[in-house]
């Protein structure tokens, strides 16, 4: 058991050589700074904005009910933006010309285009 104590003592002394008090103090100071910053953030986030601490929920619900009554709030009424569209004849409202029918003819002075809208490559005629 004496050898175990000596071994433990030697290990502790070895550890104490690697640990410096300045490092511990520095780390402790950093931790305190972080804790202060954290507390400041928590305090800021928890700040109230002129909301009284003693809010009476029943009174608040009563005010809400009164507001709903003032607005003539009925559960069966549907807001205008949720009502189905009226069947309107958009074509007559917009007064657009009729769509053309058939294929458009390509003017003679205009180059032919392929399916991608690019000019077609003229085919070279090779004499026999």
TrEMBL record:
Endpoints of the signal sequence: none
GO cellular component: multivesicular body
A biological-process GO annotation: vesicle budding from membrane
Keywords: Coiled coil
Region listing for Disordered, in residue ranges: 76-128
One Pfam family of this chain: Snf7
InterPro entries the record matches: Snf7_fam
Family: Belongs to the SNF7 family.
PANTHER family named in the record: CHARGED MULTIVESICULAR BODY PROTEIN (PTHR22761), CHARGED MULTIVESICULAR BODY PROTEIN 5 (PTHR22761:SF12)
Protein name: Charged multivesicular body protein 5
Organism: Aegilops tauschii subsp. strangulata (Goatgrass)
């Amino acid at each position: 058991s004496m050898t175990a104590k000596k071994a433990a003592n030697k290990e502790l002394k070895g550890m104490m050589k690697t640990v410096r008090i300045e490092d511990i103090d520095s780390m402790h100071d950093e931790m305190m700074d972080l804790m202060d910053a954290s507390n400041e953030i928590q305090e800021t986030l928890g700040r109230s904005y002129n909301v009284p601490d003693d809010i009476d929920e029943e009174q608040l619900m009563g005010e809400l009910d009164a507001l709903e009554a003032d607005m003539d709030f009925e559960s069966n009424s549907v807001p205008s933006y949720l009502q189905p569209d009226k069947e309107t004849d958009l074509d007559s409202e917009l007064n657009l010309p009729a769509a053309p029918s058939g294929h458009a003819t390509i003017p003679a002075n205009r180059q032919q285009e392929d399916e991608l809208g690019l000019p077609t490559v003229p085919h070279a005629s090779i004499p026999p």
